[in-house]
Amino acid sequence: MSRQPIDRLPRWLVAIGPVVILGALFLTLYLTSPFGNLGAVDDASTFEILWMLAVIGALAGVVPVAIGMLWFPIIRDLDRRYLHGFLALAGGVLAFIAVEMTEDIVEHGAEAEQTLLAVGLAIAGVGGTFAVMYLASKWRQRTMATAEKSGLEIAYLVALALGLHSIGEGLGIGVSFIQGDSTQVMLLVLAFILHNVMEGPTVVAAVARDRATPPLRHFAAMGVIAGGPVILGGWIGSFGDSPLLAVLFFAIAVGAILQVLIEVADLIRFDAEAVLTRINAATFAVGFILMFLLEDVLTDVLLEGSVLGL
Questions:
Q1: Which residues contact 308 (CB under 8 A, 6 or more apart)?
Q2: Which UniProt keywords apply (predicted)?
Q3: Sign of the CA dihedral 46, 50, 51, 52?
Q4: Which three-class secondary structure string do you get for 222-272?
Q5: Which of 64, 63, 73 is closest to 14 using CA atoms?
């Protein structure tokens, strides 16, 4: 089995290291409030705005995904049954994101003046993306040299689906930034950090079932694909708050996630035949509930704290 430097780290360090890094990042941002002065955003040049949004997007997207991926050595040491459970947990995370973004599609579609166009974009985005990824998956299966499913390929698909979802996160940051709403920018960044740290293990769970650990460049590439689009979304959001554009991006992400959920189920079935086991059902539910707590409940708590001046 090929071993990378990340595999040789002490397990206790792998277990608590990401938590310590995440806590330090969260505490530093919360105490220093680096986005507290956006009053001069109107006087900033386009380059300065894009640069600041790139920094903010990296903090909210790429960094937390990378932190979550540090748990990879622990995930790959799991028994095959529990590894399948972790893949199911990843499925629960993706399912929650899909449900949440479906709500966003409805919300932004209602805000759009051209309702029929919004409905058309939603259907085209979900259906078109699902169809393209499904056909690409079938083509890949036909052209594979061996019958063995590659976890690395599935991991890249998971990263792509999460990246499409991350564009929607960036849209919210970009709109709030250009409006000079520093409090909302801070809340979104803090919430997305805690939200996106779970995307790291979600991405690498499929890789863990492969015999060999891929080179670190693959981890870096998947982290950028999954978290980097927050930057792109921030740039787009800074140029205008378009409900129709939001509908399209969210719909594309939902279509991608639906196809990825099928891929994850097929990956489990390839190893174990039965997808719906007690462990898999329980971990799927845990993933869904955990994301609900991190996304909805945490955001509400942060918003209440900001209103009360905490």
A1: none
A2: Membrane, Transmembrane, Transmembrane helix
A3: positive
A4: HHHHHHCHHHHHHHHHHCCCCHHHHHHHHHHHHHHHHHHHHHHHHHHHHHH
A5: 73
**Residues 6+ away with beta carbon under 8 Å from 2:** 212, 213
Lookup result for tokens 């001046």? 309
For the stretch 92-151, pLDDT in tens is: 888 888 888 888 889 888 888 888 999 999 999 999 988 988 887 777 666 554 545 677
Mean pLDDT of 147-172: 79
Q: Is 79 exposed, middle or buried (0-12, 13-18, 19+ CB in 10 A)?
A: exposed
Dihedral angle over CA of 163, 92, 196, 46, nearest 10 = 40
The domain ranges of the chain are 48-307
Task: Identify the residue whose tokens are 């979802």.
Answer: 165
**pLDDT digit string, tens, across residues 13-62:** 777 888 888 888 878 887 777 766 666 666 778 888 889 899 999 998 89
Identify whether the C-beta of residue 230 lies closer than 8 Å to the C-beta of residue 237.
Answer: no
CB-based burial label for 155 (10 Å; 0-12, 13-18, 19+) = buried
